[in-house]
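Notes for week 9. Today we move from apo structures to complexes. The key idea is that a small molecule is not decoration. When we ask for a structure prediction with flavin-adenine dinucleotide present, the ligand SMILES becomes part of the input, just like the chain. The input block below holds both the sequence and the ligand string. Read it once before you look at the output, and try to guess where the molecule might sit.
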Amino acid sequence: MAQLQNGKSKSQLNIAVVGGGLVGSLEALYLAKRGHQVHLYEYREDIQKTPQARGRSINLALSLRGRTALKDVGLEDLMINQHGIPMRARMIHRTDGSTYAIPYDSRTNQCIYSVGRNYLNAQLLRESEKYENVQRYFNHKLVEANLRKGSLTFQKPDKETVHVTADLILGADGAFSAVRRSMMKQPLFDYSQKYIEHGYMELCIPADNNGGFQMPPNYLHIWPRGNFMMIALPNQDCSWTVTLFMPFYHFKNLDNEEKLLAFFQEYFPDSIPLLGKENLVADFFAGSPSALVAVKMRDLVTRPSYRLRKAVDDFIFWLLPDFWVPLYNSVTFTTMPYSQCVKNRKWQDRGRNY
Ligand SMILES: Cc1cc2nc3c(=O)[nH]c(=O)nc-3n(C[C@H](O)[C@H](O)[C@H](O)COP(=O)(O)OP(=O)(O)OC[C@H]3O[C@@H](n4cnc5c(N)ncnc54)[C@H](O)[C@@H]3O)c2cc1C
């Protein structure tokens, strides 16, 4: 029995989920399974009808937490065993082109999976079609919300507006959430947002001439270079989504083809034949880098201190698997609450300093 803001109780709520991305479409399934009446509103058109739609990063790494969430809505097998590409280790690329692997979990051989973002989103939305208590509304952009009254106003592409009310409103409309914007109008609601100095840009390593992978596929490839880096995740069509993260001023400095190629020659020389010079130049100058909000990145993997720490962590983990779970393993391969992962790390740090 759910308790409403007005004090009344209701077993079946009329719930509006704003945003049909990964979180909104998954949340809609969980709420539907509990028997609630769910209305899912999405700004874009139905992604199932536009499989090539390019949104943010076209693939993503799925860990045990994501798998667990998918399992409960019956999609784990499809996403992991039929679609996902296992990535068992990081493959580090040095500037001289040599590589070495750092396994994610040398003790129990767990791995993360590269999955198509749009594919995952489409499967979640398709699954929701099976529930009579889920109504989906595409091309509905939230433009106004009164959270106290539980009312929402959406605008359709033809500018027609739609007003609805709900017992519960869930904002799953991404980093620049309109739901959050309306929360900010409430008295005593504090909010802070921080852009980091890094932006990111996506490039692509295509499949080889035989339609196969140009690099060993079961790795997350990383080119760590101090305060910037490049990563590549394998796609199901044997191409790679390559993401270059670096400060905006670096992007700005690379303002012509010559500078771009010299930069890649200095820092990522082995990637040039894989990306293809022409494709690299075309992709780089086709768009501008995207911003990242409050995400922190650190290039730790190349530091000797990181590798020493990892070796010590892995050894104690092997010796005492139920007692000492390293931070990366607890975040990626357990469903332990994040607060507990952080607590563990603190006492492990204290222990190591004695
Ligand atoms: C470069 C990059 C790489 C990443 N890689 C990974 C990774 O490997 N693994 C991982 O787990 N996570 C990764 N993430 C994080 C992941 O993308 C987010 O955690 C995830 O997308 C959040 O999902 P969401 O549904 O909350 O938001 P989104 O995916 O942004 O979805 C929001 C939805 O709301 C809709 N919407 C927006 N405004 C409105 C409105 N006004 N009205 C109605 N609908 C609206 C949008 O159209 C969209 O469909 C990455 C993020 C970035 C930027």
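The mean pLDDT is 89.
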